[in-house]
Design goal:
Blueprint (H helix, E strand, L loop, with lengths): L11 E5 L5 H12 L17 H10 L1 E7 L2 E10 L5 E8 L8 H15 L4 E7 L3 H9 L3 E6 L9 E7 L6
Parallel strand pairs: 4-5
Antiparallel strand pairs: 1-2, 2-3, 3-4, 5-7, 6-7
Length: 170
């Protein structure tokens, strides 16, 4: 793994993912979600992702990757939903590269694409068991739009959050 300390020689670059990136996307996703493996109830399906499922997700939508020195250190899937909102999921940043603005940059990239497409906004799902993530998205301008319950549960387990009214280049 590359040196995670920021400096001029390892600045971050964002780009759209390609099919060739699928193995790296899976590696980053599994590493990023590992800390939640025994924590979330119900368990996250992220731990069951494979090359095939990651490839299918990429095929039905898009992904933005963050690279440092040609190494993918973070990414997020995104797609347009039936109501026109962009939906992003599986936002993943390698643990050694966190707290450097990579997640924020990935979200801003998706928001920019949504604005350029004249989409009404962006949506994401966040687990209620991870309130620090809900707070982080609220600081980015997202608001809870709907409480959701996983199959087999009687109480809400996650929320949909939305940021509506993006401008081109947001």
């Amino acid at each position: 793994m590359e040196d995670p300390k920021p400096n001029k020689r390892n600045e971050m670059a964002l780009r759209d993912a390609t099919d060739r990136d699928v193995p790296a996307l899976l590696e980053v996703l599994l590493a990023a979600f590992l800390e939640y493996q025994q924590v979330l109830e119900p368990p996250s399906a992220s731990h069951t992702e494979t090359l095939e499922t990651v490839g299918r997700r990429l095929g039905r939508g898009r992904a933005v990757v963050a690279e440092i020195q040609n190494q993918i250190v973070g990414f997020a899937f995104y797609e347009v939903q039936n109501d026109g909102l962009f939906y992003f999921s599986r936002l993943s940043v390698l643990p050694a590269f966190r707290r450097r603005g990579i997640g924020l940059a990935l979200v801003k990239y998706i928001e920019s694409r949504a604005g350029e497409s004249n989409a009404p906004g962006v949506r994401l799902g966040a687990r209620l068991q991870l309130p620090h993530l809900i707070v982080r998205y609220e600081k980015m301008g997202y608001r809870i739009a709907k409480y959701m319950t996983h199959d087999g549960y009687t109480q809400p387990t996650y929320v949909y959050m939305e940021k509506i009214g993006l401008r081109p280049g947001a």
